[in-house]
Design a protein that fits this description.
CATH topology: Four Helix Bundle (Hemerythrin (Met), subunit A)
Number of helices: 8
CATH class: Mainly Alpha
Largest sheet: none
Distance between the termini: 23 Å
CATH architecture: Up-down Bundle
Number of strands: 0
Number of domains: 1
Order of helices and strands: HHHHHHHH
Shape: globular
Helix content: 55-70%
Radius of gyration: 17 Å
Strand content: under 5%
């Protein structure tokens, strides 16, 4: 991590990276290029109600993940400023990648508001790319950093599909 960032407090770094990463992917790009800014909300349209529901669920889920990274992991969502501790609390008890799922939910909601084929393609390409990033970089890096704890976590908690009923998902692996 650059030394200038390390001197900035964790809350400010968390806000900065939230604005730069999911803020650009699920905020700026859909607003600027995929018609989100032209949407006139019509609460009588089922697609708009569903879209607002997705956004209304995705945004607080994303915020909860960012807060958990700072609180439990003492880091941010940025690969250059990652958590120092393995985060297995909060939403991470149920699914390994809730932050990416929250962004996907935001993009899905924005698609339901715009019906932009470009936004749909962008969202699908982003999800394929993020899946490859998780499989090829993030999971191997976490295995190297956290070893057996991460291996247990990976075995007990699914990558993309939340598990709510399994007692193993609710039990955090030892650090």
């Amino acid at each position: 991590m650059p030394s200038t960032l390390s001197s900035v407090g964790l809350p400010l770094r968390s806000i900065l990276w939230a604005l730069l990463l999911p803020g650009i992917i699920a905020g700026y790009l859909p607003w600027r290029f995929f018609g989100l800014r032209e949407v006139g909300i019509d609460l009588t349209a089922p697609s708009h109600r569903a879209g607002l529901l997705c956004v209304g669920i995705g945004a607080p889920l994303l915020l909860a993940c960012i807060v958990e990274f700072a609180r439990s992991g003492r880091g941010t969502l940025a690969p250059v400023d990652p958590p120092k501790e393995l985060v297995v609390q909060g939403l991470y008890r149920y699914v390994r990648n809730p932050m990416y799922l929250a962004v996907a939910l935001l993009l899905a909601g924005e698609f339901l508001l715009t019906f932009s084929r470009g936004l749909l393609a962008f969202g699908l390409i982003w999800f394929v790319w993020i899946n490859l990033f998780v499989i090829l970089y993030e999971e191997p890096a976490l295995t190297r950093k956290f070893g057996a704890s991460y291996e247990r976590y990976k075995r007990d908690v699914r990558r993309w599909v939340p598990t709510f009923s399994s007692p193993r998902a609710a039990a955090a692996p030892p650090r």
